[in-house]
Amino acid sequence: MRLLNLGACVLALVVVACGGETVTVDPQEAGTLQLPLSTPGADGKVYRLVGATFHITGTQTVTVSDTAADTVQTTLQAGSYTIELASGWTMERADAPGVAVPATLRSPNPLPFFVKKNETTQVRFLFKLPGEGTADVGIHVDSGGWFAGTLRFDVLDGDFGPMNPYSGLVGTSVPFVLSFESFTVTHDSWDKTTHMETGPATLQFGGAPSEQLERVAASLKGRPFFFSLRLDSSGKAFLMGSSLYNPESSLQFEILSSFESFTAVLDSDGYPVFSPIAFEAGARIRDPYYGVWALADVDASP
After folding, report:
1. pLDDT digit string (tens) for 76-94?
2. Span of the secretion signal (predicted)?
3. pLDDT score recorded for residue 7
């Protein structure tokens, strides 16, 4: 695998920021941002992000545009950042260079991230490839789906006030995407409910960098996501409460039951099928002691 190292330092890394300000980075206080740009697919083919330009802002301001290698990395001062994938990129198969594969970016853009000293941080953008699955650049191409939308945080869970680590989220709106590799289906004949359990899920948040949201996403990475679709008396469906949960940390991300029903696709036995849907629902992040509630505008697709 080819690796292009941008901004490697010997004694100190000097970066020219916006406006001509010079920032000197002590290598003892720096970390590494890594951007994998290729990913093997479930079909055995390799997919590559081509022509990408990344704008990084935060403790430093850096633009990465020389993305000819399979992986690029740059040394950054420890701190909080956002990274934006600029327009003009294409997705290609490695065995068919120059031929663009239709792809839709699903991650919030820009994405927040943190750089810690002496550590490597990897940022991944998720893409949907029609007919091929979801590309998690640097990880895989799969046949799963996603839930995506905006969380509008409005109420803290419990009476801890400012002690609640999620208090800074109240009053903010944060885009999110929950992507999963695959899902299995079971049916409940009593009330025509379809239950889904996904394969390993990846949860991403956009907006300003948040150590709390980063902790939630990291703790829940790779856990299965459970959700259900139930028919109502009119023959429409609504989302039953869904959950992404880590029993080791007791952290949980929930999308609660949808406020209104929606037209559902039914299978030959009359059960609702997971198909592209859009709905509004409540949502919650919680751990054993603290939590925060949100209103969620969601679209979902297999």
Report:
1. 999 999 999 999 999 998 8
2. 1-19
3. 28
Q: Are the C-beta atoms of 32 and 77 separated by less than 8 Å? A: no
Task: Specify the pTM.
Answer: 0.78
End-to-end CA distance of the chain: 32
Tell me the CA distances in angstroms from 209 to 162, 177, 206, 243, 253, one per residue in order: 19, 16, 8, 24, 18
Cα gap 27→30, rounded to integer Å:
5
Given a contact cutoff of 8 angstroms between Cβ atoms, the answer to whether 80 and 94 are in contact is no
pLDDT category at 10 given cuts 50, 70, 90 is very low
Distance CA 273, CA 130 (A): 19
Distance, in Å, from the CA atom of 208 to the CA atom of 257, rounded to the nearest integer, reads 27
Can you tell me the distance from the alpha carbon of 271 to that of 268, in angstroms, rounded to the nearest whole number? 8
What are the tens digits of pLDDT across the range 22-54? 345 566 678 888 888 888 765 677 888 999 899
Nearby residues of 270 by Cβ (< 8 Å), 6 or more positions away: 192, 231
The answer to which of 142-146, 166-170, 283-287 has the lowest mean pLDDT is 142-146
Check if the beta carbon of residue 78 is closer than 8 Å to that of residue 31.
yes
Q: Which residues contact 210 (CB under 8 A, 6 or more apart)?
A: 112, 168, 169, 174
Could you list the beta-strand ranges (E) of 143-224. Answer: 145-157, 173-180, 183-188, 193-198, 201-205
1-123 CATH choice from 3.40.50, 3.30.1380, 2.60.40, 3.30.70: 2.60.40
Q: Which residues contact 299 (CB under 8 A, 6 or more apart)?
A: 147, 148, 149, 276, 277, 278
Sorted by where each begins, the domain ranges of the chain are 1-123, 144-302
